[in-house]
Write the structure tokens for this entry.
Amino acid sequence: MKSQGAIRAAADAAATPTVSIRRAEIGDAGPLAGLMTELGYPTTADEMADRLRSILPHGDYLVAVALNNGQVVGAIGALIGYYLEKNGCFGRVIALSVASGHRGRGFGASLLAHAESWLRARGAVICIVNSSAHRTDAHRFYRREGYQATGLRFQKDLQPPVPLPASDSKI
Ligand SMILES: CC(C)(COP(=O)(O)OP(=O)(O)OC[C@H]1O[C@@H](n2cnc3c(N)ncnc32)[C@H](O)[C@@H]1OP(=O)(O)O)[C@@H](O)C(=O)NCCC(=O)NCCS
């Protein structure tokens, strides 16, 4: 029979998992599709595999996954952007998602810290993240991680394509 201490240690270990993070691979397409679907963007494994084939070769783009007992439970996408108006570059978090059953256990914070280190090592001076107004839980998370709300996001649909103005269409 297990002692109370051993039972408590096992419970603690389950509550605070050792987070391991690595670069995503094509073989992660299935779990990544599930995480993007949970984020609100329904995605099949085949679609995700196609996306990863385009994205993974880009040196300015990071896709990393968090593992719990070898199982993918979270993912982050981040990229380097280049300022036009001044020197240098910035980082941007494109997507961050932790599986609903694994939230509140540090996976999100570890993924964000990993992406920030990756961006910092490539010279990014700030990290920007767009987060929809309705994601109030995520806003709490970003504030806790040291992010400040600094602006408004404007968005306009560009599909279906609008014909180019006559002057541009001669190009
Ligand atoms: C936001 C998110 C990535 C955070 O990941 P996480 O692994 O739960 O985060 P951590 O465990 O590192 O930190 C927990 C903190 O996140 C926040 N949080 C947001 N949603 C949470 C949830 N469902 N459960 C627990 N904490 C949540 C809390 O502020 C919490 O801090 P607190 O315990 O001090 O209140 C994750 O909750 C998630 O995937 N949410 C849905 C998708 C989403 O909104 N993504 C961000 C898009 S911009």
In short: The pocket of coenzyme A is lined by residues 39, 96-98, 103-109, 129, 131, 135, 137-138, 140-141, 144 (CB under 6 Å). The first strand starts at residue 20 and ends at 23. Confidence is low (pLDDT under 50) at residues 1-13.
